[in-house]
């Protein structure tokens, strides 16, 4: 035997009515929320209604400014016009032309003094016009022969005065010493510069160069000049 429910106790009996009532309330609340208007409190006040104490009212300070007067225009003094009578003789200044013409005399070239230019810089021996002349090479005719004789006499001087330093022998030192010196305008040797593997070898090379004789100086355009010369001296133990 199946149990029977009481129709009055059925929960779903009025569910549709409750649904519509709920929807109506929700829509009404949404409408009121959207249409609800609020206003800010009125804090405005009329400025004209305010009463200010007369003691607080101050008179505005009046400043009197003196405008400087504009500068007066400078009136230039008119030039004095000297009226000369017609019968008075006037000396006119004659301006002579200084440009040469066919009647201008030409100065002879021999009468023009040419200042000698002094050359202070050193010129390498390979670039100087007339190389220094080693004693004994004066009789060479051409400039090329004089240069070759210079090289040969310098090498001969080195072989004649060469002496291996004893300290260098004991330490087994050997190598090449690069030498550069200047043949001055009076033919003397100066400004000797050396670079070698050891001081003792450099001192021996300096001693050999110091014994070079005085030479006839090199010339550039007929003027004595300083001439630089460089050579190596090789120290080698047998």
TrEMBL record:
Protein name: Energy transducer TonB
TonB C-terminal domain segment(s): 149-238
Intracellular or extracellular location(s): Cell inner membrane
Record-linked InterPro entries: TonB, TonB-dependent_transducer, TonB/TolA_C, TonB_C
Primary location: membrane
Pfam families (alphabetical): TonB_C (PF03544)
Membrane topology qualifier: Single-pass membrane protein
Family to which the UniProt record says this protein belongs: Belongs to the TonB family.
Record field: transmembrane: 16-34
Keyword list, A-Z: Cell inner membrane, Cell membrane, Membrane, Protein transport, Transmembrane, Transmembrane helix, Transport
Superkingdom: Bacteria
């Amino acid at each position: 035997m199946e149990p029977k429910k009481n129709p009055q106790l059925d929960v779903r009996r009025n569910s549709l009515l409750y649904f519509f009532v709920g929807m109506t309330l929700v829509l009404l609340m949404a409408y009121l929320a959207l249409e609800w208007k609020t206003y800010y409190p009125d804090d405005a006040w009329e400025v004209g209604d305010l009463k200010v104490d007369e003691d607080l009212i101050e008179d505005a300070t009046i400043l009197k400014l003196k405008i400087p007067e504009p500068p007066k225009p400078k009136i230039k003094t008119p030039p004095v016009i000297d009226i000369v009578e017609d019968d008075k003789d006037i000396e006119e200044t004659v301006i002579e032309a200084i440009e040469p013409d066919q009647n201008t005399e030409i100065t002879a070239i021999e009468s023009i003094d040419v200042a000698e230019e002094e050359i202070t810089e050193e010129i390498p021996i390979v670039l100087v016009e007339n190389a220094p002349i080693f004693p004994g090479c004066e009789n060479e005719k051409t400039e090329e022969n004089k240069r070759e004789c210079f090289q040969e006499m310098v090498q001969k001087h080195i072989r004649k005065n060469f002496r291996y330093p004893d300290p260098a022998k004991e330490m087994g030192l050997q190598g090449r010493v690069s030498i550069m010196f200047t043949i001055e305008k009076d033919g003397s040797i100066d400004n000797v510069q050396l670079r070698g593997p050891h001081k003792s070898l450099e001192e021996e090379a300096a001693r050999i160069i110091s014994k070079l004789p005085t030479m006839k100086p090199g010339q550039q355009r007929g003027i004595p000049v300083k001439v630089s010369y460089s050579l190596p001296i090789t120290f080698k133990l047998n």
